Amino acid sequence: MVRVKRGKIAHKKRKRLLKETKGFRWGRKSKYRLAKEALMKARTYAYRDRKVKKREFRKLWQIQINAACRNLGLSYSKFIHLLKEKNIILDRKILSTLAKKEPEIFKKIVEKVKK
């Protein structure tokens, strides 16, 4: 009977996992067990932080819009409320960009909302 050599697939799986943990610190880049745990943790954090990133950016946009509005004599909450009343549909990202890069256009939007 011919001898059967095994472990090709297991070796390939381990090799792929260690390739993914390249750049990790200490033994987590070279020891399979530690690498596997580190990768599971890293993927969990990556999934969670994709949601957190959206939250953080929304907060940043709100702060930037508020700063620009206050210079023009209006608070953020009143500005957003007036935008909704006037049916001006601009999201916070766009408003923040306008406030930073195109202040004169943002000023016109605020004046239109105030009327």
Mean pLDDT: 96
**CATH superfamily, please?**
Ribosomal protein L20, C-terminal domain
Global structural class: mainly alpha
Question: How many structural domains in the coordinates?
Answer: 1
Count of discrete alpha- or pi-helical segments spanning 4 or more residues: 5
Q: What is the CATH architecture annotation?
A: Orthogonal Bundle
Largest sheet: none
Distance between the termini: 92 Å
Give the CATH class: Mainly Alpha
Estimate the global geometry from the Cα principal axes: rod-shaped
Which stretches are poorly predicted, pLDDT < 50 over at least 5 residues?
A: none
- Kindly identify the CATH topology: c-terminal domain of poly(a) binding protein
H and E string = HHHHH
The radius of gyration over CA amounts to 26 Å
The proportion of residues forming helix, as a percent range, comes to over 70%
How much of the sequence is in beta strands? under 5%
Q: Total strand count, please?
A: 0
Which descriptors apply to this entry?
single chain; mainly alpha; 5 helices; 115 residues; rod-shaped; c-terminal domain of poly(a) binding protein
